[in-house]
Specification:
Protein name: ABC transporter
Membrane topology: Multi-pass membrane protein
CATH class of the largest domain: Mainly Alpha
Keywords: ATP-binding, Cell membrane, Membrane, Nucleotide-binding, Transmembrane, Transmembrane helix, Transport
Subcellular location: Cell membrane
GO molecular function: ABC-type transporter activity; ATP binding; ATP hydrolysis activity; ATPase-coupled lipid transmembrane transporter activity
CATH architecture of the largest domain: Up-down Bundle
């Protein structure tokens, strides 16, 4: 046990333990021995070892059923008998020893007289650990409290209003009901009778019922009274009542899980049978009636099905079953690890291709899935009413004007450019088929000109059938019109393909970028990474633009090549040889450009990064008078880039020059071959038809040649995007959802270094934080304070040791779900472009009132009200209108607006004056939240519950401010530097 946590002196603690053990009898509990906790007056003082406390369901014949873990008592600790609640006789509380030594005490005897001065503090600490641990086990199956918690502090009075609850603060606080009535955990009724008291931890609460007013007492003060054991028994009675409901909720949740599993199997079987039914032309409807939450999840699942996204009932949704708040689209999307966006349905939107949507009925707001249909435009699915129909104008107009659309994420593993192309074309089969068919039909229509030319000069003119020229002309006009229609159809299909790929691919890239680990961003500058991200779009344009159109041109050329072989096979072989020469020359030119393009892409990224750094540091450059040197640095790189660009363009000009004369040269070669090979055998009409087909053939191949050059130009871009595509996102679907964090943190023997060649930053760091505590980390620069912050946020992983949140290893948890419950303020944090409301709200689902409350807690309310537009005042990225202290307070407001379970501050108040810092500190102290702060100012760490002093990556001192100052160690040395 850390004596700095509870008793202030080890000797006093040992004396107190000796007094308490002398009042009972010592027992050695065998491993796996069962200890019923049904005797209300019995206490066990656990001196060593571990005992687990379980709630056990009793079956028929008093047979013991499943165990539900509530608490683990580790020596030194306290174990108490709870009795048996008559309302839940089917539940028994058992303790299972893992090999422990305990002293058995009688609670009534112990409580017959007030605790002595020697035993008061140790016994209070043991009692608080028991109450807090049991409370944590109780709330596991309760829905998160939606009401705002009012922290109860010993010596303070609290009068909760409707919509709020009273909770403990920094451990256990006893609530004395001075007036009115309330419900413990919203269940167990309690009324003011002059003596009623109930202990509250940061995790448990007391809800007001009728004019509730409570006063706070600490456990040491309670133990000085003669009836403290009665209050403990009152707590046990209320606990057992709430525990029964908690286990009932757990059974309902398990039943719901089994029900959903059965539904999932039934849905899978229905889908399979539906596929068999569709084989014989029978349409099936797989939707079914559902409640509001299930209807929304079903609507999202139906809407996401065309995108290849499968939405299942995930643990995150299951854990919310006890919550009375309705399910939202954002929660469904978050559980499915996809992105959702709110969109407005304007104008005649049902005539446009907006993709699948989740819309809402204008009458009752029930969720509906709107899915594109190639025949009718859109199909409307109503999971709540189990109906499906075509979407007509009247129904479309009646829908709510706001809807949701979804974006499919890219696969989590490493990707290549071809993977992106395949993913982009995955749901484009219909448009690809249309484009290919249009190209083929256009090529077929293109054959009409050579054929008509042959007919005119071979038959019509020699035979003086001039009247047939009109028919041939009309046929050519019709062929031209058909070719135009096919060309437009193909281009529209290509545009649809390009538009869909662009939207979903770019969204997928940004989503992937946001999910990459922080170590990835440390390897690239902001400008370089931004250019690499945009390069993906440039590659997409090249691949879906010129390359796809050139592919269609290649399809078109096949028909012209067939005519060449039909009219003159030998000369057609020469045309193929010319084709190979053209492509070979294009490959040579592209290869010559490649090295230059590689260097140019790297230089371009460096220049973009340099320009961004120069712009963001313009004030510093002016102060230092370094504008000329900055310009020289930029000019050197830019001149080198222009040199590379000029070299690449010279090679490109060579290709353009050769291609300009290639058509004439090709015709000359054809004339020569025809004169030698065919001679008098080739008739005039056939010759002219051959030339016409050859001209069409070479025109199409010119586009193919340009596509070859474009492919070489794209190669350096693809290599630039490889780090972005090959990096693996940190989100893992196999990671466990953390649930609702209590704020309990354990850092156990952690070692860490940033890479294998660098020295260790943390060397066996160990510390523990209990829920609701305020912990300060101090120490010289480079001791590992900020590194520990990164580890707590999951940005880095320990080399050895572990970090545990509520007993769960952080490496096994979904870090994004953890971060959503953590508020972070960094010293170098900046505001975002936008309004003050948007800056405080951030990514939280907060209202304007919530933002005002957060601003009030951060001491920023008066500053905002003095601004022209109040909460809606617009800010720029440079935040020139705000002082450093105002920026820090806005960041603090952003951190607390979502009511996180854990707050991490890294020099978050360094720019605040003492008065403002006092306001912020007082406001934060009233929150039921765990705080960890890195600070050097004494005024910041003085009120901390515990201060950890770090040096060389390990804890060398721990305790509160007074204890550390009395030790005359490193902390007192650092503090005296400020005091002098």
């Amino acid at each position: 046990m850390d004596v700095n946590v509870a008793p202030n002196a080890r000797s006093a603690w040992n004396d107190a333990m000796a007094i308490l053990t002398s009042m009972g009898r010592r027992e050695s509990l065998v491993c796996n021995g069962i200890l019923p906790l049904t005797l209300e007056t019995r206490l066990w003082l656990v001196e060593a070892g571990t005992i687990d406390v379980f709630a056990v369901e009793k079956g028929e014949g008093d047979r013991l059923g499943r165990r539900h873990h509530l608490h683990t008592v580790t020596g030194p600790g306290l174990l108490a008998g709870l009795g048996q609640a008559s309302a839940h006789a089917d539940v028994e509380i058992l303790a299972v020893s893992r090999g422990a030594t305990a002293t058995v005490l009688d609670g009534s005897t112990l409580a017959a007289a007030p605790a002595s001065a020697a035993t008061q503090l140790p016994l209070a600490w043991l009692l608080d650990r028991w109450i807090e641990g049991m409370g944590t086990g109780l709330v596991r199956n309760f829905a998160p409290r939606s009401a705002h918690p009012l922290p109860l502090i010993a010596g303070a009075n609290v009068t909760p209003t409707e919509g709020s609850v009273v909770a403990g603060h920094k451990g256990v606080t006893w609530a004395h009901l001075a007036a009115g009535s309330g419900r413990y955990m919203g269940i167990a009724d309690m009324a003011a009778d002059g003596i009623s008291m109930i202990p509250l931890s940061p995790e448990t609460w007391l809800a007001p019922v009728d004019g509730l007013a409570v006063a706070g007492y600490g456990s040491p003060g309670l133990l000085s009274t003669s009836n403290w054991w009665r209050h403990v028994q009152t707590f046990h009675d209320a606990y057992l009542l709430c525990l029964g409901l908690s286990l009932d909720n757990q059974r309902k949740m398990e039943g719901w899980r089994l029900e959903k599993r059965a539904d999932k199997i039934a849905d899978a079987l229905g889908t399979t049978f539906g596929r068999f039914a569709r084989l014989v032309g029978v349409s099936t409807d797989t939707t079914g009636g559902a409640g509001p939450d299930n209807a929304l999840a079903s609507a999202c699942a139906i809407a996401c099905r065309p995108l290849g996204i499968t939405i299942e009932q995930s643990p995150q949704l299951i854990r919310r079953r006890g919550d009375d708040r309705p399910l939202t689209v954002e929660e469904v999307a978050r559980a499915a690890r996809i992105r959702a966006r709110h969109v407005a349905l304007r104008g005649e939107w049902w005539r446009e291709d907006l993709g699948p949507l989740v819309a809402f009925s204008g009458d009752d707001g029930r969720p509906l899935a709107v899915v594109p249909d190639p025949k009718s435009g859109y199909r409307l699915h109503d999971p709540a009413q189990a109906t499906e129909a075509d979407l007509d104008e009247a129904t479309a107009v009646s829908l709510s004007p706001m809807a949701w659309t979804f974006y499919a994420p890219l696969p989590d593993g490493p990707l290549s450019a071809m993977d992106l192309l395949r993913l982009g074309l995955r749901h484009q089969k219909r448009d690809v088929a249309v484009a290919l068919a249009a190209g083929a039909l256009g090529g077929f229509m293109g054959m009409m000109l050579p054929i008509a030319t042959s007919s005119v000069f071979q038959t019509i003119i020699p035979g003086h059938h001039t009247s047939q020229l009109i028919q041939v002309g009309l046929a050519l006009v019709m062929a031209a019109a058909a070719s135009t229609i096919f060309k437009i159809t193909g281009d529209v299909a290509l545009l649809r393909i390009e538009g869909r790929i662009a939207g979903h691919l770019q969204a997928g890239i940004i989503d992937r970028l946001l999910r990459l680990p922080s170590s990835f961003f440390a390897a690239y500058s902001t400008g370089d990474l931004a250019q690499r991200t945009l390069t993906v779009e440039m590659v997409r344009k090249a691949m879906t633009g010129l390359v796809l159109s050139s592919f269609l041109a290649g399809v078109f050329s096949i028909f012209s090549l067939g005519l060449l072989f039909y009219y003159q096979p030998m000369t057609a072989l020469v045309a193929l040889l010319l084709l190979l020469l053209m492509l070979g020359f294009s490959v040579w030119v592209g290869a010559r450009q490649l090295a230059t393009l590689f260097e140019g892409e790297a230089l371009s990224g460096n220049i973009v990064s340099l320009v961004l750094q120069l712009i963001s540091s313009i004030q510093k450059l002016r102060v230092a008078g370094a504008e000329d040197r900055a310009f020289v640095l930029w000019g050197r790189n830019f001149a080198e880039l222009r040199t590379r660009t000029a070299k690449s363009r010279r090679i490109a000009n060579l290709h353009a020059t050769v291609m300009a004369g290639w058509d004439i040269l090709s015709l000359a070669v054809v004339f020569l071959v025809v004169s030698i090979a065919a001679g008098a055998k080739l008739e005039t009409g056939q010759f002219l038809a051959f030339i016409a087909a050859f001209t069409l053939f070479m025109g199409s191949l010119t586009q193919v040649s340009r596509a070859v050059i474009q492919c070489f130009n794209v190669k350096p871009m693809i290599d630039r995007t490889k780090p972005l595509l090959e990096a693996v996102p940190e989100v893992d679907a196999t990671k466990e959802d953390p649930g609702r964090l209590s704020g309990d943190i354990e850092v156990n023997n952690v070692y860490f270094r940033y890479d294998h060649e660098s020295p260790r930053v943390l060397n066996g760091l160990t510390l523990q934080v209990r829920p609701g505590e305020f912990i300060a980390l101090v120490g010289p620069s480079g001791c590992g304070k900020s590194t520990l912050m990164k580890l707590l946020l999951g940005f880095e992983r320990p080399e050895a040791g572990g970090i545990f949140l509520d007993g769960h290893d952080l490496r096994t948890l979904d870090v994004q779900a953890v971060r959503r419950q953590v508020g972070v303020v960094l010293q170098a944090g900046r505001v975002m472009p936008g309004s003050i409301y948007e800056n405080i709200k951030g990514a939280a689902d907060a209202t304007v009132d919530d933002c005002w409350e957060a601003a009030r807690m951060a001491g920023l309310e008066d500053d905002i009200r003095a601004m022209p537009m109040g909460m809606h005042t617009m800010l720029t990225e440079g935040s020139a209108a705000l002082s450093g202290g105002q920026v820090q307070r806005m960041l603090i407001a952003r951190a607390v607006v979502s009511k996180p379970r854990l707050l991490l501050f890294d020099e978050a108040t360094s720019a605040l004056d003492n008065r403002t810092q006092a306001i912020v500190t007082e406001s934060l102290s009233k929150l039921s939240v765990t705080r960890i702060a890195i600070a050097h100012r004494l005024s910041t760490v003085k009120d901390a519950d515990r201060i950890y002093v770090l040096k060389d990556g390990r804890v060398i001192e721990a305790g509160n401010y007074d204890d550390l100052m009395a030790k005359n160690g490193l902390f007192s040395e650092l503090a005296r530097r400020q005091l002098t």
